[in-house]
Design goal:
The complex is a heterodimer. Chain A is mostly beta strands. In chain A, about 0% of the residues lie in helices and about 60% in strands. In chain A, the strands form two sheets. In chain A, strands 2, 4, 5, 6, 9, 10 and 11 form a seven-stranded mixed beta sheet that branches. Chain A has a four-stranded antiparallel beta sheet with strand order 1-3-8-7, with no helix packed on it. Chain A is globular, with a radius of gyration of 13 Å. By secondary structure, chain B is an all-beta fold. Chain B contains no helices and twelve strands. In chain B, the strands form three sheets. In chain B, strands 2, 5, 6, 10, 11 and 12 form a six-stranded mixed beta sheet that branches. Chain B has a four-stranded antiparallel beta sheet with strand order 3-9-8-7, with no helix packed on it. A two-stranded antiparallel sheet of chain B has the order 1-4. Chain B starts with a strand and ends with a strand. Classes of the chains: A mainly beta, B mainly beta. The interface between A and B is medium-sized, with 22 and 24 residues.
């Protein structure tokens, strides 16, 4: 069966520090992968999606970036975090119709 | 482009009361529709989906949703809620021919004893 992992589960980082969140999927090949952010009271915002290695589409201009170095690995990064980057970050993959979500990473920027 | 509107950001109800969480979507092509549930500090779980066929779909825990094409709605209902149903509920839409999965803003269901 397919599983999706995210780490870390929680993260507290100071403003201006770098960020790296990792997502890996097991049990499937060439998945479509997504990064969503959930800020308090603002629903679920699609940040990036990827249909294959090295293929990244950005939905919202911001100081975040994403990379897909391997088929089942999706990384969300930032060079310098802002206070507004705080939120709950969710990785997901499509199967091909439904989305399956990871457990999420709670990021607090202080 | 597609969009999803969840008309209520918060819905407080008493235990054993009925509830309806509203969802309207906008799309120029045929779509698949979903409801996801998120319990506190967890990821999202699929609650139910409409792909084709019967417009009334049900989940294993008593929720149901009805696809209404003319009103472009996919409202979620439960005739009698439990404390354990307290969670945030997200409506989502994607085009049948593939593409992004777009979510509504979410509805926070709070069930009180």
């Amino acid at each position: 069966s397919q599983t999706i992992h995210q780490w870390p589960a929680t993260l507290v980082q100071p403003v201006g520090s770098p960020l790296s969140l990792e997502c890996t999927v097991e049990g499937t090949s060439n998945p479509n992968l997504y990064w969503y952010r959930q800020a308090a009271g603002r629903g679920l915002q699609l940040l990036f999606y990827s249909v294959g290695i090295g293929q990244i589409s950005s939905e919202v201009p911001q100081n975040l970036s994403a990379s897909r170095p391997q088929d089942r690995q999706f990384i969300l990064s930032s060079k310098k975090l802002l206070l507004s980057d705080s939120g709950f970050y969710l990785c997901a993959w499509r199967s091909p119709i439904m989305a399956h979500f990871g457990p999420g990473t709670r990021l607090t920027v202080t | 482009a597609q969009s999803v509107t969840q008309l209520d950001s918060q819905v407080p109800v008493f235990e054993e009361a009925p509830v309806e969480l509203r969802c309207n979507y906008s799309s120029s092509v045929s779509v698949y529709l979903f409801w996801y549930v998120q319990y506190p500090n967890q990821g999202l779980q699929l609650l139910l989906k409409y792909l084709s066929g019967s417009t009334l779909v049900e989940s294993i825990n008593g929720f149901e949703a009805e696809f209404n094409k003319s009103q472009t709605s996919f409202h979620l209902r439960k005739p009698s809620v439990h404390i354990s149903d307290t969670a945030e509920y997200f409506c989502a839409v994607t085009q049948r021919q593939g593409g992004k999965l777009i979510f509504g803003q979410g509805t926070e269901l709070s069930v009180k004893p």
